[in-house]
Write a structure and sequence with these properties.
Distance between the termini of chain A: 117 Å
Structural class of chain A: mainly alpha
Strand content of chain A: under 5%
Shape of chain A: rod-shaped
Helix content of chain B: over 70%
Structural class of chain B: mainly alpha
Helix content of chain A: 55-70%
Oligomer: heterodimer
Largest interface: A-B, 19 and 34 residues
CATH architecture of the largest domain in chain B: Orthogonal Bundle
Low-confidence stretches of chain A: 89-95
Order of helices and strands of chain A: HHH
Low-confidence stretches of chain B: none
């Protein structure tokens, strides 16, 4: 037997303790759901960032995209003598 | 038997023993109550992987002892941050414990145990208060019976020395 004569507990403590300890399996399962709100907060923040990014893209002034076609057109024209003014074909030698 | 039924069986069989065991480490009913819950939460979570071969008794006491020691280490760190001493705090608890019913000699004994080094305190509590056989204690503390007997002998000498000063 455990020597415990010098210390005591509140009246009915061990019966009450057993009841509380018996609840641990249920509380521990609920404990997994304690993390769920934190995950929800993190997911909400991510969603806010994504939506904000989407809105910013939609409301910002459109930027002319330089797809390089203008330059390519210019080069194409430069290959075609009829496409550019005569001055473009003047070289230093000719000048 | 389901896991929950197994756990409830362990609660029925060991809750009181675990309480008295950790109470000797922390010298306070409320902290012992907290510790008991932590011990059984650990037991519940580790129960699926518990191997019956190691012995339930040994396993439960090992968890309880480790939790009690972890608690004392946390208290030691907290005391150090406040420039205090965990031993002084434990001695104060013994003096102010409303659930202490012993006489002056028993109070002095409790205080002497507080002053023991960690390993000797473990052995003393398990041997003197819990009356655990050395063979079981060796499994709980993962050490040899010889080392435990030597440790207990030294602990007894220190306790006697302290009590003689008090007298």
């Amino acid at each position: 037997m455990v020597r415990k004569n010098d210390i005591s507990t509140p009246q009915g403590y061990f019966d009450e303790l057993k009841g509380r300890l018996g609840d641990i399996p249920h509380r521990d399962r609920r404990g997994v759901r304690i993390f769920a709100p934190w995950m929800a907060i993190a997911a909400s923040m991510l969603l806010a960032v994504l939506i904000g990014n989407f809105i910013l893209r939609k409301t910002a002034a459109p930027v002319e995209e330089d797809n390089g076609w203008d330059y390519i057109s210019y080069l194409a024209q430069s290959l075609d003598p009829d496409g550019l003014p005569d001055e473009e074909f003047l070289t230093d030698v000719e000048q | 038997m389901s896991l929950e039924e197994r756990f409830n069986e362990i609660v029925r069989e060991y809750s009181e023993r675990v309480y008295w065991h950790v109470r000797r480490f922390v010298n306070c009913h409320e902290d012992a109550d907290d510790l008991v819950q932590e011990v059984f939460l650990k037991i519940w979570r580790a129960l699926p992987s518990f191997r019956e071969e190691s012995g339930l008794y040994t396993w439960v006491y090992r968890i309880a002892t480790n939790e009690a020691l972890n608690y004392l280490r946390r208290e030691k760190l907290r005391s150090a941050l406040h420039f205090g001493s965990v031993d002084e705090e434990m001695l104060r608890r013994i003096d102010n414990d409303p659930y202490f019913n012993g006489d002056a000699a028993e109070r002095a004994l409790s205080k002497a145990v507080v002053r023991l080094p960690e390993k000797q305190r473990q052995v003393f509590i398990l041997r003197y208060y819990d009356e655990m056989p050395y063979e079981e204690m060796a499994k709980v503390l993962d050490t040899s019976v010889g080392a435990l007997k030597a440790s207990y002998h030294i602990a007894q000498e220190k306790v006697r020395a302290f009590l003689s000063k008090v007298d």
